[in-house]
Amino acid sequence: MTAQQKAAALRARKGGRPIAALTAYDYPTARLLDEAGVDVLLVGDSLGMVVLGFPDTTHVTLDHMLHHVAAVARAKPSALVIGDLPIHTYDTPQQALETARRLVAAGAEAVKLEGGIRQAEKVRAITSAGIPVIGHLGMLPQRVQEEGGYRKKGKTPEQADAIREGALALIAAGVCAIVFESIIPETARLLTASLSVPTIGIGCGEHTCDGEVAVVTDLLGSYPWFVPPFAKPEADVAAIIREAAARYVARVGG
Ligand code: KIV
To answer: Which of 52, 82, 84, 85 to mutate to test the pocket of ligand 1 (most atoms within 8 A of CB)?
Structure first.
């Protein structure tokens, strides 16, 4: 399937079988997740924290993203590979298109960017060039420093309306899906019911959106130093690594 066909298939999941999306940052993880049937592999700028050891996503550069998108793409997944546009690489429509093209050249099949109305022209520039775009509304991690932390969104009717306006602007500009981050469940459910493209939730409660996305280290329990309250780990990989390494040290060190 071409990138455009995969993006169209994602968009067609609106109201149907829920979308299961996970982040991936490297070749083996991408292969394993793809073999497990994950629909979307997001090379998210969360890699700044859970892979590169930065305090937040504002330290991620385009070079970091290109390196990790290329690694994931080498797994040749059936899943749609989405690459995040890092902060300050989409400040103008022209820059957004240039960045999106570089991510596609590295192997991304779609790109994601954060924000609503103020990003519509940038989304239009990218979709007009035939590159599928995914929006991202609610909590915007690239603005964590201005906002002074990670906060729930959509708590008042005014906040919910602002998210809806942003979503409508993104849809008019051609996005094929929108990530909802940390929007309270009631608002996420209401907005999902009213929008024409799939919403993919993280931190929005279960079954409130058309699908869910999780940071893979939260799912695997491989980044134990910070686990968001909404994470639902399915494994304890940190313990497995520590135990295996301790056994190795004991074997080698006698
Ligand atoms: O970077 C990322 O992992 C993301 C998810 C939180 C959706 O954008």
So the answer is: 84
The confidence score (pLDDT) of residue 149 equals 79
**How far away, in angstroms, is 231 Cα from ligand 1 center?**
13
Q: pTM for this one?
A: 0.96
Is residue 215 in contact with ligand 1, taking CB distance under 6 Å?
yes
The number of beta carbons lying within 10 Å of the beta carbon of residue 179 is: 28
Rounded Cα distance, 199 and 19, in Å: 9
Which homologous superfamily does the CATH classification assign to the domain defined by 3-214?
A: Phosphoenolpyruvate-binding domains (3.20.20.60)
Determine the distance separating the centroid of ligand 1 and the alpha carbon of 158, expressed in angstroms: 25
pLDDT tens digits, residue range 171-225? 999 999 999 999 999 999 999 999 999 999 999 999 999 999 999 999 999 999 9
By mean pLDDT, which of 71-75, 111-115, 147-151, 236-240 is the weakest? 147-151
- Cβ of 202 closer than 6 Å to ligand 1, yes or no, is yes
- The structure tokens listed for 192 are 């999902």
Confidence of residue 146 (pLDDT cuts 50, 70, 90): confident
Contacts of 201 (CB under 8 A, 6+ apart): 179, 180, 181, 183, 188, 208, 209, 211, 212, 213
For the chain, the domains span 3-214
Q: Which of 66, 20, 64, 1 is nearest to 207 (CA)?
A: 20
Q: Does ligand 1 come within 6 angstroms of the Cβ of 217?
A: no
Question: Active-site residue numbers?
Answer: 181
